[in-house]
Structure formats: structure tokens, C-alpha cells
Design brief:
heterodimer; A: mainly alpha; two-stranded antiparallel sheet; globular
């Protein structure tokens, strides 16, 4: 137990130390840095998995690990807390980090300076944001991960990246200001920044101050929702993600989930059922925000022509789905949403990597796609074969042609990604969506009659889940036809081994999740149950005592 | 004193927001600077404003919040200043890169067609 508690701080320290070492090593030792980065990321993933296993092995109440970095007791010092939700997201970050890095090793890491150091700092910010239990510390980790993401987004340079980067930085600086205003207002009303302590203080807030408290919480939520990609705060997301280099975009697949994590964590703690007059404050806004995001993204995905843009819009679809389902505040639905989050994040990460490989194979004589906007869809006639081409099996010209393994690999991976993101059987995307819909209709669990009929917002979510799947199906189908069936005489793309490994890894994980969905589903249901009843979390944080030092022994233990 | 601080924060934030919405990158960066000044003052004022209270521990004064100003907002402001300073520097670099690559200082990288 005690060494486990020490391990909680390791996911933050490890990338920090690795990044510091890499800054000291010159650019010409790139191979060494790449190996060091990979080693560190793998160790980080190992630590995350260990923590996940530990959390899973404990009972519900004892499964919360608390670490006091400054050895001050909870409301005064900074606290790191590991619970079911953090452990799940830590592991997801680790998996995505390793995959993006493997992909980057093939060619992208040489496209600019300090890629590996920035990568590690990005991981540090992500791990820290998932672990911290202090509002201001959360701000600092957000800034760490944003600072690194600015650098990574601009990696490879080029006009489109700088342009999208400018917008991305401006909106995130603005959101950071909102974060500070919100955090300061919460501090002004409650006099604390510790999340567990905030949860204890909020029911006691005087009636006159409650308006200020709610305003502060809403401003804070704005800062998170910008990152989570809720409409209408998400216009920066598609240009930024679709212009980023492939490994960076793949890593960014987890970035919108940081915003969602912050909303979920703070909302369930601060405005839980025990929050008195503030209970469930803002829940309906999350639901409606999520529904509108989902609807707008589903319409825009129909217009997407480039694969990167399709992937970025799929991120918005998944963000909308998650926000709306989390906003209902029902344990079963939140659990299903977390399963969907895991599966969709892995699939989106794979899709971003795959998009680059597929677009790379576009030959020069095809119409170049504009960097910025989607062209008007090509007319239908362009799908008809030109005259003189032999499509007749009887003439035996087509039979016996060998499909190059690269095209076969790309095609199969594309189909798997599409099935996962659309949510079609048999892969885990389907299980995720099915669970969401099932949880909407049976909030008490299967076989138990629901207390009240499904609300209008619930029906909207069911309809939009199905319609967005339909829209994705059309978009993926069209892009697939254009990329794989339409081109003739295309040279098959050159793939490096490093570029295939992460895609196989990510899709393999998704397939494993489809076959063995039950352990993860049980885990996410436990997570959601813990989030809905935050007493254990608050208790664990507030009761942790500092370790007595050699000189303070007498003071701490009277 | 509360009124003066409130007006100052309001003016800074309003000018900041107006400048952020302007089309030139330099105006945007000035707007973000002004906004962060306004936010810093706001955090500072959230520790409540007092006249004549000690900012740091002094001999002979009882050590409680009745005799000292709240130190936490000061620490928060310090962190926020450092971070916003660094981010402004980074934004300046991107601004210059954008100017160099596109030849214009419009935030969209191209002038609006007349």
C-alpha cells in the first residue's frame, strides 16, 4: 500500500526528468533521444497499468490512493489522488503516447527541433491533469500540457499549421483566463481550492453567495468545455487537428478527453446529490451542449472530403456523445459513456495515424485538396469507370492480380476504424453505443422497470446517436470508395514497419475490447458508481495524514 | 477602494476582449495581455481587499487572517503572471512566423476580399 502511494507521483516525475535530460542532449543525437523517449513512455505505460491493476484489485472504498507531494495535510497542501477514473485515463494516455511515438519514429520526429522533449512534457501535463486533486494545480498542469501542445501542433511548420496554431493558441489563452477567473471566484466564495474540500464547503455556502458560486463554476466550465470541444466553442478544433502532423493529431485524440475529465471530476464532486441547493447545477446545460455538438458534428461530417477532417469531426461526434451522456448524471449511463470513451479514443488515434498513410498514397495526378476548405464533392459520374477499362471478369484480365500487402493492410485497418467509430457490430464501438442506449432506457439496470419514462432529451440523444452513426457511415463509405476503389494505376504506398505497428496495436486493443468487453465494462460501472457517490473520495483525501519527518515527529504525533 | 479596483478590472477586461476580437495579430496579443492583467487583479481582489494589514509575517503581530492579508491569492497571481508571460512570448513567436509565412498580419493569414 505504501509503495503504491509513492508510485502515484511517478507518472509526473518520469516524463519531467526524461524531458529535462533530453533538453541537455543535442539535436544530432536524435536516435538516442527517440530510444530514450520510447523507453520512458513504455515505463510510464507500465506504471499506469500497475496503478490500474492496483485500483481494480481493491474494494470500492479502499481503491483511492492519495499522495501529498509537499507533505502537508489535505486542504492546505497540494494533493495527488488516484481513483478509478484517473487510473483508466492514465492508462489510455500511456497507450496513445506509445502508439503516437512509435509512429513518429518512422519519419515525423525529424521534422523539427525538440520533438521528443515536447512529447514528454505533453505526457507529463496529461498525467498530471488526471492525477491532481487541487484546482489551481489543475490549472498549472493544463498550462503544461497546452504549452507542449502548442509546440507539437507547430511541429513540421508550414503555412496551414502556423495559421491553425495561431487560432489554437489564442483561444486557449483566452480559455486559461476564464479558468483563472472561475478558480478565483470559487476560492473567493469557499476559501479553498482543494476539490474534496470544495465538495465539503459547497453545501455550507450562504444563500447570498450562491449566485457568485454558480457564476464561478459556470465560467470554469467554459474553460473546460472549450477544450472538450463543445459547440459553439469548437471551431478551432477541426483546423488544428486536421493540420497537425499525424502522430501529434493522434496524441491530441486524448486532449478533448482532458476537458471532459475535468468537467466530470469537478461536476460530480462539487455538484453531487449532497451539494444541497446546488445539487446537479448545470447538468441540463451539459446535456443540451452535448446534443447540439453531436448534431452539428454529424451534419458537418457529411461534408468532409479529407480523411484528416473526417477524423477531427469524428472527435467532435464522440465529444458530443460523451458530454450529453455524462450530463444526465446517472451511474449506468456514465459507466457506458466511459466504455465508449475508451473505445472511441483508441479508434480515433488509429484513424489519425491511418489517415496520413492513406493520404500519402494519393498520386500526384489526382486533384490536390485545398489545405483549408473542403472542395465541393466530386460529381457522381467520376465514380463511373472511364471508357476502355476492363471490369469484366470473363476477360480474365483482373483475376489473379495481387493486391499489394500495403493496400490490403490499409484497407482492412480503414474498415476496422470505420466500424469502430460508426459503432457497427462486431467491434467495441457497437458495444459502447449499445450500452449507452440500453442505459438510457434502463437507468436502473436491465430487467428493472425505470422509475420514469425517458425524457425528451433522452429521446433526442438516442435519435442523434443513431443518426450520427448513419452520417459517419455515409462519410466513411464515400471516403473509402474515393481512396481505395476509385484510383487506378496508383503506386502502392511505401509503409515502414514502425508505422504499421501502432495501428495494429491500437486496433488489436479494440478487438480485444470487443471480445473481452466485460472486465472493462465492470470497471467503468465501478468508476461511475464511485463518481456518483463521492464520499469515499472526499473521505480518503481529507483523512490522509502527512508522513512524520525525523524532526517533526513529536509535533505530528502528539 | 472596491469601486476603483472593480472599474479597473472592468476596463482592462473590456478593452482586452475588444482587442482580441480585432483582425490584426498584434491587436490580439495586446488584448490577451490586457485580459491577463485584468484577471490577475481579479484573483488578487478575490482574497478580499484590506488597508493596513501586514502582507508578510511580522514580529509581535498574532499570526491569523485578522491581522494579515490572505497570502494564497498572491501566490496564485504570481503563478498566473509567470505562465501568462511565457505564453505571451510563445504567441509572439508564432505571430512572427505567421507574418513571415503569409506576408500579412491578419489573423486568418490572408486579407479579406473587398
Amino acid at each position: 500500500m505504501s509503495w503504491m502511494n509513492q508510485l502515484i507521483v511517478a507518472p509526473i516525475l518520469l516524463p519531467l526528468v526524461t524531458a529535462a535530460i533530453m533538453l541537455l542532449i543535442g539535436e544530432k543525437h536524435r536516435q538516442f533521444k527517440a530510444r530514450l523517449n520510447l523507453l520512458s513512455s513504455l515505463i510510464g505505460l507500465g506504471i499506469a497499468v500497475t496503478l490500474l491493476m492496483w485500483v481494480r484489485g481493491q474494494g470500492q472504498a479502499e481503491s483511492i490512493g492519495v499522495y501529498l507531494p509537499g507533505n502537508w495535510p489535505a486542504p492546505f497542501g497540494i494533493v495527488l489522488v488516484l481513483d478509478h477514473l484517473s487510473a483508466l485515463l492514465l492508462t489510455l494516455t500511456g497507450v496513445i503516447g506509445v502508439s503516437a511515438l512509435l509512429f513518429a519514429r518512422a519519419r515525423w520526429d525529424g521534422a523539427g527541433a525538440s520533438f521528443h522533449a515536447l512529447f514528454q512534457i505533453q505526457l507529463m501535463g496529461l498525467y498530471g491533469a488526471f492525477l491532481t486533486a487541487d484546482l489551481f494545480n489543475l490549472f498549472v498542469f493544463f498550462e503544461v500540457l497546452l504549452a507542449a501542445s502548442y509546440g507539437l501542433l507547430l511541429h513540421g511548420s508550414g503555412r496551414a499549421r502556423v495559421r491553425a496554431g495561431l487560432h489554437y493558441i489564442a483561444i486557449n489563452l483566452f480559455a486559461s483566463s476564464l479558468f483563472l477567473v472561475g478558480a478565483a471566484m470559487l476560492y473567493g466564495v469557499t476559501g479553498t481550492l482543494n476539490m474534496a474540500d470544495l465538495a465539503l464547503k459547497i453545501p455550507l455556502v450562504a444563500e447570498a453567495d450562491r449566485g457568485l458560486l454558480h457564476a464561478g463554476a459556470a465560467i470554469l466550465a467554459m474553460a473546460f468545455l472549450v477544450k472538450a470541444g463543445v459547440w459553439p466553442l469548437n471551431f478551432w478544433l477541426v483546423p488544428a487537428y486536421s493540420s497537425a502532423s499525424a502522430p501529434v493529431a493522434a496524441l491530441f485524440a486524448i486532449m478533448t478527453k482532458v476537458g471532459l475529465y475535468a468537467v466530470l471530476r469537478l461536476w460530480t464532486l462539487l455538484f453531487s446529490g449532497q451539494a444541497g441547493a446546488s445539487a446537479n447545477f448545470g447538468g441540463e446545460w451539459l446535456v443540451y451542449g452535448g446534443l447540439v455538438t453531436l448534431a452539428v458534428a454529424a451534419v458537418s461530417i457529411l461534408a468532409a472530403q479529407r480523411l484528416e477532417r473526417l477524423a477531427a469531426l469524428s472527435i467532435l461526434v464522440s465529444a458530443g456523445t460523451l458530454l450529453a451522456s455524462v450530463g444526465f448524471g446517472q451511474a449506468a449511463l456514465t459507466g457506458a459513456a466511459l466504455f465508449y470513451l475508451t473505445s472511441s479514443t483508441l479508434a480515433l488515434c488509429a484513424l489519425f495515424l491511418l489517415a496520413e498513410l492513406i493520404e500519402r498514397s494519393r498520386s500526384a495526378n489526382e486533384a490536390p485538396l485545398d489545405d483549408e476548405e473542403d472542395a465541393i464533392p466530386p460529381p457522381l459520374e467520376s465514380l463511373h469507370p472511364p471508357k476502355g477499362i476492363n471490369l469484366d471478369d470473363e476477360q480474365k484480365a483482373v483475376i489473379g492480380q495481387i493486391i499489394p500487402w500495403t493496400m490490403a493492410f490499409l484497407g482492412l485497418s480503414f474498415i476496422a476504424c470505420a466500424l469502430l467509430i460508426i459503432g457497427m457490430p462486431p467491434l467495441s464501438g457497437f458495444i459502447g453505443k449499445l450500452n449507452l442506449i440500453s442505459a438510457l432506457f434502463n437507468p436502473q439496470g436491465l430487467g428493472m422497470p425505470p422509475e420514469q419514462p425517458l425524457s425528451a432529451a433522452g429521446w433526442c440523444l438516442v435519435a442523434l446517436l443513431l443518426l450520427s452513426g448513419m452520417a459517419s457511415l455515409i462519410a466513411f463509405g464515400r471516403v473509402g470508395i474515393q481512396r481505395f476503389w476509385k484510383p487506378e494505376e496508383r503506386p502502392s504506398p511505401l509503409l515502414r514497419r514502425y508505422e504499421c505497428v501502432p495501428i495494429v496495436l491500437l486496433l488489436g486493443l479494440c478487438i480485444a475490447l470487443s471480445i473481452q468487453a466485460e472486465p472493462l465494462l465492470r470497471y467503468t460501472q465501478d468508476t461511475a458508481a464511485g463518481l456518483q457517490a463521492p464520499d469515499a473520495y472526499i473521505q480518503a483525501v481529507m483523512s490522509t495524514r502527512p508522513v512524520p519527518g525525523p524532526t517533526t515527529m513529536t509535533q505530528v504525533q502528539p | 477602494m472596491e469601486e476603483v479596483i472593480a472599474v479597473a478590472i472592468g476596463v482592462l477586461a473590456a478593452s482586452g476582449v475588444w482587442l482580441v476580437l480585432r483582425p490584426r495579430t498584434y491587436q490580439v496579443i495586446m488584448g490577451l495581455c490586457l485580459l491577463s492583467y485584468g484577471v490577475n487583479l481579479f484573483i488578487f481582489s478575490m482574497g478580499s481587499l484590506f488597508i493596513g494589514k501586514e502582507p508578510i509575517i511580522k514580529d509581535g503581530v498574532p499570526q491569523d487572517l485578522l491581522n494579515y492579508t490572505d497570502p494564497l491569492p498572491q501566490a496564485l497571481v504570481l503563478t498566473a503572471i509567470v505562465i501568462s508571460f511565457a505564453m505571451t512570448a510563445l504567441f509572439l513567436v508564432v505571430l512572427l512566423a505567421s507574418r513571415g509565412l503569409t506576408g500579412t498580419d491578419h489573423v486568418d493569414g490572408r486579407e479579406r476580399e473587398e
